[in-house]
Design goal:
homodimer; alpha/beta; seven-stranded parallel β-sheet
Chain lengths: 271, 271
């Protein structure tokens, strides 16, 4: 472990060295505080809160943070999960159970590698944690590029919020501070770098959500997203399958061009 | 992960499949409870308590255990740490700081490997956790065969009791349920296998090319793939970005539905 080197690199890069931890609709201030403490234990600093149920700032959070005020104080509150991920390039949803979504499922240790690789490449990464009792909604999971599940005893699988944050932070810190990361995955990295993304940076979630909004408005107009009770699941399916492609900013514009072109087809045919 | 196989092996061996978790002089019942919950998350069952400061049984412990009564109820109380480790073959002390003792220092993952090896060989293993504020005394550490230290942010190193138990349990369960000790490609395999494709098989190239043909016919009709000398590159770009999503057979059909719907938009608007 070489923490000093890590911190040096972090400030040299002028980048947050870790992912944003995004707590969606947390219910208890104390859980926000213990989550902040767990972040501090593993050098994570950026906390985002989506619609915390007991308001913000919250004195119970400060107390439970056991001194992690450098994390609690600058935490930013968002009204929706969409807003909280808008500037990010890669978003991962934590979940305790399998979901019927076609998304890559990572273990915490593979996630740590993936995050380090992306952050080193200049991407902004965030991890979504759901509310204490229910976890993330399917719509929140659909915003993510991948899902992370920790291996737990299936007969007793409920981790509390701070513990879920702790495991993610632990694996991240372990691999980051090992410094051994690059060696074994060098080849793998090289082959991933082969992916042609040279024309453009990865799309932000805001750009992607704008594209989805465009597509869904046209699909509504075309009567595709019916009956209405099936609309949420259909929207999730389409978002999931296109999210997996990890469009660049240029590709988002291309795809929006495709949508516009397709909706013009019959106008032109009529000319 | 193959939990069923793990449990089968456990009962076949007629041994506790995991180490005993020994809490030395814990101060708060609530911490004993959350530690029990963390044990349950990772299939650890044997809790030993040395001189719990607020007596035993303790209703705060039961409440904080969130249902882990199968761990709390049979927990055994000892008056001294010596008595608590008397029947064990291999004892490990958790500590947050280096001690001036000539003992092997393990990381949680090496400890997990060591424990699995010893328990498989019929040994009884236990892990000592100190009281919340001060950790283990030097005398307690001296009872141990080895010391385990988790890699944490040295500037914010204090883990609470349940979180320390959680990390040990997590590494143990991860390696035990992997069945993969030391196979370096395990992670990569797991993450590749991780894509959930439950509704459908991966699309064949024939299906994918059929979808591309459908899309490109409509894009030609909409005038998108112009000028003609740029058409091949544009087609490649669109194919590349959609190929990356690795559609299933069902998703290919969904996407063809999307194309058809979009091209019908203006017909319907005109109705």
């Amino acid at each position: 472990m070489d923490y000093a080197k890590l911190m040096e690199k972090k400030s040299a890069n002028n980048l947050s060295a870790g992912p944003a931890i995004i707590l969606c609709e947390p219910q208890l201030g104390a859980n926000i505080g213990t989550a902040a403490r767990a972040m501090g234990n593993f050098g994570l600093e950026e906390m985002r809160l989506v619609d915390p149920k007991n308001g913000w700032p919250n004195e119970h959070a400060v107390k439970a943070a056991s001194g992690a005020t450098h994390i609690i104080d600058p935490a930013v509150v968002y009204q929706t999960t969409e807003e909280a991920v808008a500037d990010l390039n890669f978003v991962v949803a934590t979940t305790a159970r399998r979901r019927d979504m076609n998304k890559q499922v990572l273990k915490p240790e593979s996630l740590a590698r993936e995050m380090i690789r992306r952050i080193d490449a200049g991407q902004k990464v965030g991890i979504l944690f759901g509310r204490e009792k229910y976890g993330l909604t399917n719509d929140q999971v659909a915003l993510a590029d991948a899902v992370v599940m920790a291996p737990v005893n299936p007969a007793f699988a409920s981790l509390n919020l701070a513990q879920a944050v702790l495991l993610i932070g632990y694996e991240w810190f372990k691999q980051k501070s090992d410094g051994s990361l690059g060696r074994e995955t060098e080849q793998e990295e090289a082959s991933r770098e082969g992916l042609e993304l040279r024309d453009s940076r990865p799309a932000t979630k805001e750009e992607l959500l704008g594209m989805f909004g465009h597509l869904e408005r046209e699909l509504d107009a075309g009567g595709f997203l019916r009956p209405v009770e099936k609309r949420p699941a259909m929207v999730r399916n389409v978002r999931n399958m296109l999210t997996r492609a990890e469009f660049t900013e240029q590709e988002v514009r291309t795809f929006r061009g495709v949508i516009s072109s397709l909706t013009r087809v019959h106008e032109r045919r009529g000319e």
